[in-house]
Amino acid sequence: MSTSIVIMIIVLLFSVVFHEVAHGWIAYMLGDKTAYKMGRLTLNPIPHIDPMMTILMPLMLGFMTNWQVMFGGAKPVPVNPYNFKNPKKGMAITAAAGPASNLLLIIVTILLFKILGILGFIDKYEVVARFNYDDLNFLDTFFIYSVMINSVLMVFNLLPIPPLDGSKILMGFLTDDQAYKYESMSRYGMYILIGILLLGSILNFSIIGAIIYPFINFFIRLLLG
Q: Is pLDDT of 202 > 90?
């Protein structure tokens, strides 16, 4: 297994765990201690590992795409919205914390890259050259993958398809009746996502990719610009 694949796995694992801990921490701040009581407010990856989302799916995608694509998730932290003063609003804020945590990691990555450049540890022009020729070293790979993986996690989770975070954020702006009906679609969410992927395959056009790639390109330009 190459160094780049190991870095990709480490960055993905930390990012999805950080994402879930952010949900749990905000829920705790808003009055729900469910995740805290279950020992989920920790960056230790072990309690957050889901056999399918954290292990099988990333490995399957890696093998199927020759390690060009790796995506996954952690075990969702338990949240009881009835512990919030305003369940619908509290759930929306808690949901938003996940994508916000990935945006935070992107910002920290870019700032760290810029600081190391100012201090002379990194020459961004050399990094750009290696990036264009697909000849990244250890540090290059870490910074590039950190931005790319967190961009994907942020944007994908913001899609308003139940049960993704975006749907829960949207529910915070709906009436109680509308939110209930919308949440009832959660049982079909996975089928909707699979349908979108299959449609994209038939059309030879990645619908979700068309939404995500502009954000990846934007943050990569900020990193290397």
A: no
